[in-house]
Write a structure and sequence with these properties.
The termini are far apart. The strands form two sheets. This protein has a six-stranded antiparallel β-sheet, sandwiched between helices. It contains seven helices and eight strands, in the order H-H-H-E-E-H-H-E-E-E-H-E-E-E-H. Mean pLDDT is 85; it is low at 246-254. It is 40% helix and 18% strand.
């Protein structure tokens, strides 16, 4: 007589409640992320369409998110991020000391006549966030601004975040700088390097970007050295260890060819 399959293990009420709570947090964060990424304030319908959640579920979540100050409903019934989002951003800057340490280094790059410096962090599997930005003294600039979400898989800063964010030792072989010539924006060029924190953790990518026609072979060579010097200084100030000096050597030929 064939044996019957064993019954599925019964989940305890506590475990089931925990999993339900995790799902609720996931839905709430999806709502906040949808509002954060939107180019303009979203209606309840817009949030539901963006997240794939039922309007009734979104509305229930909104009650808590509004009460905690993470989301704000305007008089026109559209939703924006609330004051708690601003406080979280300030807390992030304070705890990571990024702006305090990076701003003087980025301003020094501008004074040396480089292209515009920006600092990027990984947002998710598809995007990166421009956390800080200083405009160069050139008359024409690229269009990157602090707060912009940019593609992770295109551009020099994205290459740095992907390459060094894995913790793989092989990522450190060869030159530390990455380059982009019209990848993200056909009119924009960029060169970027990594900034590390304690334990070898990648904190982000420091880049120099501007109009592509100024990214000539000689200009790129002049930019790489001060850029990597700034990356090294930032790494040391933020408690990280800069890789061996021989790995920072720039290429003898243009990375463009």
């Amino acid at each position: 007589m064939p044996s019957r399959p064993a019954p599925a293990p019964k989940l305890s009420p506590g475990y089931a409640a925990n999993m339900e709570g995790v799902a609720a947090v996931e839905r709430a964060l999806a709502i906040v992320e949808a509002i954060e990424r939107a180019e303009q304030p979203l209606t309840l319908t817009g949030v539901a369409e963006t997240t794939g959640l039922y309007k009734s579920a979104v509305l229930r979540m909104m009650v808590t998110l509004e009460r905690r100050g993470l989301v704000l409903r305007r008089q026109d019934q559209r939703y924006v991020l609330g004051p708690l989002a601003f406080r979280l951003g300030r807390a992030y800057e304070r705890n990571n000391r990024l702006e305090e340490q990076l701003a003087p280094l980025m301003q020094a790059l501008v004074e040396r006549g480089t292209e515009s410096p920006s600092f990027h962090v990984r947002q998710d599997d598809e995007t990166r966030l421009c956390l800080l930005r200083f405009d160069s003294r050139h008359s024409t600039l690229d269009r990157v601004r602090a707060g912009d979400l940019l593609p992770l898989k295109r551009g020099a800063a994205g290459k740095v975040l992907l390459r060094f964010g894995t913790g793989d030792a092989e990522a450190f072989g060869g030159e530390l700088a990455e380059y982009s010539f019209g990848e993200r924006d056909p009119l924009c060029g960029a060169v970027a390097g990594p900034v590390f924190g304690p334990g070898g953790q990648l904190l982000g990518a420091l880049s120099l970007s501007g109009p592509l026609d100024r990214f000539t072979e000689s200009a790129v060579k002049k930019m790489v050295k001060p850029l990597l010097e700034a990356c090294e200084a930032a790494t040391r100030q933020l408690g990280g260890v800069w890789p061996a000096a021989e790995r920072t050597a720039r290429r003898t030929s243009s990375p463009r060819h």
